[in-house]
Amino acid sequence: MTSTTFDQSNALPADWRDLLALTKPRVMTLVVFTGLCGLLAAPAAINPVLGFTAILCIALGAGGAATLNQWYEADIDALMKRTRGRPLPAGRMDRQTALHFGVGLSAFSVLLMGVATNWLAAAILAVSILFYVFVYTIWLKRRTPQNIVIGGAAGAFPPLIGWAAATGDVATLPVLLFALIFLWTPPHFWALSLFVRSDYAAAGVPMLPVVAGAKATRLQILLYTMPMAAAAVAPWPLGLAGVLYGAAAAALSAAFLILSLQVFLSKANEPAEMKAEKRLFAYSILYLFALFGALVIDRWVIG
Amino acid sequence: MSEPQIEPHPDPLPDQAEVRRRQRSRAIIMAWLLAAFVVLVYAISIAKMAMAG
């Protein structure tokens, strides 16, 4: 990693909007939502103040991890069109501010989670932050096309954290929700990386489409979709969720499979032509929102 | 004799008014965040005491 990608001497103090941008607020939305659903799907009622604090801690932890990710990746972010406008590669902030902000936010989120809810939830939150920063960002991302397969675990922790915050325990359902997000991450990210392949190639990031080509990536998307669909539906036959969730999971996963099949059959080479890939990427976000929403409705409305 | 060329400083100091503006906006946000944190800790304490009771 290069230490700097721009001149930072005499830099202005960072603007608060840039500090906020470091936390990747849009990515945080999904993390917060899945964490909230894990908390609401838990069989134990949690005090609303403590529940709010738990979700706040998940958001702050995700923001801290995202900040540390951008602190470490400023050099490759500067090489990619999609990311070169971020505060660090654009030179709007010095790296030390980002590092202090990321470490501070991460440590604060874990301590507050431990004090407000329980130390199991705090420990899982700490593991998810450390996993994202050290295993995904520092170790895997620049070394292997399996980076997001293993690194995807970091984003799969929030429902587990929400559940642990409410119950003080870990059970089969949150582990299945973890597995679902873990298996969802590769098709989601590979669909994106197919149409931003040139960006990753320019930055030397060994994403699967760069290393193995578009055809192999399309096959892998389809292959990963199958166990993902199985993990999504599994809570229903196992008696961990009701028929509303089961029907929603089956229908949403069937649509995911059809879109993955369209990607598999696609022969598009240019990003502008990759309609199937863009459709799958957009749908994959909606899929996770809808699935977790269905789980909570199933638990709260149907009982 | 020609006048010496004055080259612009390669790394000029940032505009002090802009520095002050950013420091002020960050200080205001920090004050609000600290106030929110105090309220949150108070609410957490009440919730914990209610649970214990």
The number of strands of chain A is 0
* Biggest sheet details of chain A: none
Helix content of chain B: 55-70%
How many extended strands of chain B?
0
Care to describe what's here?
- The complex is a heterodimer of chains A (303) and B (53).
- Chain A has 303 residues and is mainly alpha-helical.
- Chain A has helices at 16-22, 25-41, 48-72, 74-77, 95-116, 119-140, 147-151, 153-156, 158-167, 172-195, 197-203, 208-211, 214-233, 243-265, 275-302.
- The longest helix of chain A has 28 residues, at 275-302.
- Chain B is an all-alpha fold and 53 residues long.
- The model of chain B has no long low-confidence stretch (mean pLDDT 84).
- Helix content of chain B is 70%, strand content 0%.
- Chain B is rod-shaped.
- Chain B has one helix spanning 16-52.
- The A-B interface holds A 7, 9-16, 47, 49-50, 53, 56, 115-116 and B 11-14, 18-19, 22-23, 25-26, 29, 40, 43-44, 46-48, 50-51.
What brief labels describe this structure?
heterodimer; A: 303 residues; mainly alpha; 0% strand; flat; disordered N terminus; B: 53 residues; 70% helix; rod-shaped
Task: Give the SSE layout.
The complex is a heterodimer of chains A (303) and B (53).
Chain A: H1 16-22, H2 25-41, H3 48-72, H4 74-77, H5 95-116, H6 119-140, H7 147-151, H8 153-156, H9 158-167, H10 172-195, H11 197-203, H12 208-211, H13 214-233, H14 243-265, H15 275-302
Helix pairs in contact in A: 2-3, 2-9, 2-15, 3-5, 3-6, 3-9, 5-6, 6-9, 9-10, 10-13, 10-15, 13-14, 14-15
Chain B: H1 16-52
Question: What is this structure, in a nutshell?
Answer:
The complex is a heterodimer of chains A (about 300) and B (about 55). With about 300 residues, chain A is mostly helical.
